[in-house]
Amino acid sequence: MYNKKVKLRALFLFLSIASIILIVFLVLKSLEENVVYFLSPTEIKNLNETTTEKIRVGGMVKDNSIQINSEKINFIITDFKNEINVIYSGIVPNLFQEGKGVVAEGILKDKNFFKAEKVLAKHDEKYIPPEVKASMGEE
Description:
Blueprint: H1 4-34, E1 38-39, H2 41-45, E2 54-61, E3 67-68, E4 73-78, E5 83-88, E6 101-110, E7 113-121, H3 130-135
Parallel strand pairs: 1-2, 5-7
Antiparallel strand pairs: 2-4, 2-6, 3-4, 4-5, 6-7
């Protein structure tokens, strides 16, 4: 019915479409495993059950909540509706301070307590590192 040239084109088209679908699937699957979103304290309060997997909690560091001991730092992350207590052992970033944005990565012990393994400080788009500001002559 169809000549050899048409069959070859149809096979090429089929293999091209199958290859594209496979590539898109593999890219999305790899991104799914590597992308970690953060949850707000309100989202954590609304969870049906606590998880033992590593998650991220994001929000603002509550004013007057940072307590520094010799080995650990305790602070509260808030989204201005709910709060979660965080404990962290390690060095915090320079931008970490009360009233500023923070994302903590770790394990949720219960809906009110989070043990952080990593703390990431967030900044707004107007932030200029102190070294750059000094080199520009601004203070």
